[in-house]
Amino acid sequence: MRALIAAGAVIAGIALSAPAPAMASGDAAPTTDWSFKGLFGTFDRGSLQRGFQVYTEVCAGCHSLRLMSYRNLSEIGFKEDQIKEIAAEVEVVDGPNDEGEMFERPGRPGDRFKSPFPNANAARAANNGALPPDLTLMVKARLGGADYLHALMTGYREAPEGFELSDGMSYNAMFPGNQIAMPSPISEDGVEYADGTKATIDQMSRDVTTFLAWAAEPEMEERKRMGVKVLLFLLVLTGMLYALKRKIWADIH
Questions:
Q1: pTM of the complete model beyond 0.90
Q2: Cα separation of 112 and 23, whole Å?
Q3: How far is CA 78 from the centre of its chain?
Q4: Non-local CB neighbours of 28 within 8 Å, separated by 6+ positions
Q5: Sign of the dihedral defined by the CA atoms of residues 202, 207, 210, 216, in that order
Q6: Fewer beta carbons within 10 angstroms: which end of the chain, N or C?
Q7: Interatomic CA distance for residues 191 and 89, integer angstroms
């Protein structure tokens, strides 16, 4: 019985635990109240769709999302026709054709998100030598996860008096060393939300962070649901095993 409970606890722990961050990123970020935190947390679909809009209009010019496909957008509430329209807005390289040549065609739902640059060297050349990282797993890759990303995007300030800021760098209160190659990507009313939400810096930062949290763990909600089911199963099984034990040993006592 103890072995069964122990095994079930391990399974539940795997189902419910989030992957540990792989890279450190400076001091701990202020804690933000996210809808997807906790055992029963879920992603806010409205925030996810707004975050996708921010990514598309603000971030996609420099940062890729190469592990995601356009069809994955169905998981955050987009309809099939919307996804086809979104995918068709980009041109992707395909082929070879019957003549053995590569060609461009409109994107399809099954295509991966198109990267802004053809290769890393082109990305560095367009960004003063800095390589904009892929954002698919960024929430997992930074200590503090969603809290850190939100704090980073809202952490741009004027450099304090006496602080020597290198050429081409921006001051960020959250970034280690306080100097970051990326200028502030978000400005007040930087996008016009389709649902009419006021596009403040904080709101846009929250929304795109929520979207990137989903991109890093699109299976999170299903994993939590499975974890809850496993825990409920273990509770019922424990009760049944205890009742069985009482019945078996009742005559002996």
A1: no
A2: 25
A3: 17
A4: 143, 144
A5: negative
A6: C
A7: 18
Whether residue 18 has pLDDT greater than 60: no
Question: CA–CA separation, 56 vs 63, rounded Å?
Answer: 10
Cα–Cα dist 119/7, whole Å: 46
Domain count, the chain: 1
Give me the count of residues in the chain: 253
CA dihedral 100, 101, 106, 112 (to 10 degrees): 80
pLDDT band at 245 (very low <50, low <70, confident <90, very high): confident
Q: What is the rounded CA–CA span in Å between residue 250 and residue 175?
A: 65
- Read off the DSSP letter of residue 56: I
At how many degrees (to 10) do helices 45-54 and 201-216 cross?
100
C-alpha to C-alpha distance for 149 and 141, rounded to whole angstroms: 10
Domain extent, residue 87, equals 2-250
Contact 21, 142 (CB under 8 A): yes
Q: How much is the average pLDDT of 177-199?
A: 93
- Cβ–Cβ < 8 Å for 150, 206: yes
**C-beta of residue 21 within 8 angstroms of C-beta of residue 141:** yes
Q: What is the token pair recorded at 245? A: 């034990």
User: Distance between CA atoms of 214 and 78, rounded to whole angstroms?
Assistant: 14
CATH number, domain containing residue 186: 1.10.760.10
Based on the number of CB atoms within 10 Å of its own CB, is 52 exposed (0-12), middle (13-18) or buried (19 or more)?
A: buried
Which residues, 6 or more positions from 141, have their beta carbon under 8 angstroms from its beta carbon?
Answer: 21, 22, 23, 133
How far apart are alpha carbons 4 and 19 in whole angstroms? 25
Q: What is the pLDDT of residue 251?
A: 72
